[in-house]
Design a protein that fits this description.
Blueprint (H helix, E strand, L loop, with lengths): L41 E9 L2 E9 L1 H7 L7 H5 L5 H15 L4 H15 L5 H5 L7 H6 L5 H16 L2 E7 L2 E7 L8 E4 L2 E6 L21 E4 L2
Helix pairs in contact: 4-7
C-alpha cells in the first residue's frame, strides 16, 4: 500500500531503480518482531465444547493492529509460526485459557487447546474468504470470521508452547498444514521423529479428532517439518 502524508491510503505499485547506494545489496527483512501501539480494543466472543463442558471466551484484539497486518506482505509460513502475538490478544488468550487447564495432564490440556482451535473458529479456505492465499497471524485469526489450516496451526502451536511449555513443530503436507507436539509422557497415536524427539500428531483442522489422529488422506504421506522456536 502506498499513500501520501495526508489523506487516505491508496493502493499502488512499488518500483525499483538501478542506482547504486550503500547497503543496496542487503537482504530486505520482513520478519515481524512487534506491532504498532493502539489504545482501541475490541472483543470477539468464542465458544467451544470439550467433553461435557461448554466454554465461552471473549478474546480481545486491537483493530488497528489488524488493519496494519492487512498491508503486510505475505511471507513463508515458518515466519508466522515464529512471530510474536500482539500484547492485547496474547494477554486475553492466556488469562482466559490458563484456568481451563488447571489440574489437567499434558495430554488433556493439549487436547483441550486443540479442541478450542478446532471448534471456536469456523473454517473456510483462503480462496473462499479472501479469493487468494492469505496466511493469518493469530490476532487476525481472532478477528476474521473464518480461518483455515495454517492459521489454526500457527495459533495452536503458540498456545501449546506458551501455556504448556511443550515443543511443537509444523507439518507441511501437499495442500495442508498441521502440527505435532513433543510430550514428556508416553502419549499414544501417530507420531514422527524430529531432531531426536518424538512428536505426536495434533491437527487443528481435523475437527473433533484428538491428539494422535491423522487425517486419513495423509496417513501414508511423509510431511516436511517446520521448525517452531
Amino acid at each position: 500500500a502506498v499513500g501520501l502524508n495526508k489523506g487516505p491510503m491508496t493502493v499502488g505499485k512499488v518500483f525499483t531503480y538501478n542506482g547504486n547506494y550503500p547497503d543496496a545489496n542487503k537482504t530486505f527483512n520482513l520478519v515481524l518482531n512487534n506491532y504498532p501501539a493502539s489504545k482501541e480494543v475490541s472483543g470477539k466472543r468464542l465458544k467451544f465444547k470439550y467433553q461435557q463442558d461448554t466454554f465461552r471466551l471473549n478474546i480481545q484484539y486491537q483493530p488497528q493492529v489488524v488493519k496494519y497486518l492487512n498491508t503486510y506482505p505475505q511471507m513463508d509460513i515458518k515466519y508466522y509460526f515464529n512471530a510474536p502475538i500482539a500484547d492485547t490478544t496474547r494477554s486475553s488468550l492466556l488469562n482466559q485459557l490458563t484456568p481451563l487447564l488447571q489440574g489437567k495432564s499434558e495430554y488433556e490440556a493439549a487436547n483441550l487447546l486443540l479442541r478450542f482451535v478446532q471448534k471456536a473458529f469456523p473454517y473456510k479456505t483462503d480462496e473462499e474468504q479472501f479469493s487468494e492465499e492469505n496466511y493469518l497471524f493469530p490476532v487476525e485469526t481472532v478477528f476474521y470470521p473464518y480461518s483455515d489450516c495454517e492459521d489454526r496451526s500457527v495459533l495452536f502451536a503458540w498456545l501449546t508452547k506458551t501455556l504448556l511449555g511443550l515443543d511443537v513443530v509444523g507439518l507441511s503436507y501437499p495442500g495442508h498444514i498441521t502440527t505435532a507436539v513433543a510430550f514428556n509422557t508416553d502419549v499414544p497415536g501417530d507420531s514422527f521423529s524430529f531432531e531426536g524427539k518424538r512428536y505426536v500428531m495434533a491437527d487443528p483442522t481435523y475437527i473433533n479428532a484428538n491428539i494422535g489422529s491423522t487425517m486419513p488422506q495423509f496417513k501414508n504421506t511423509k510431511p516436511t517439518f517446520i521448525l517452531v522456536q
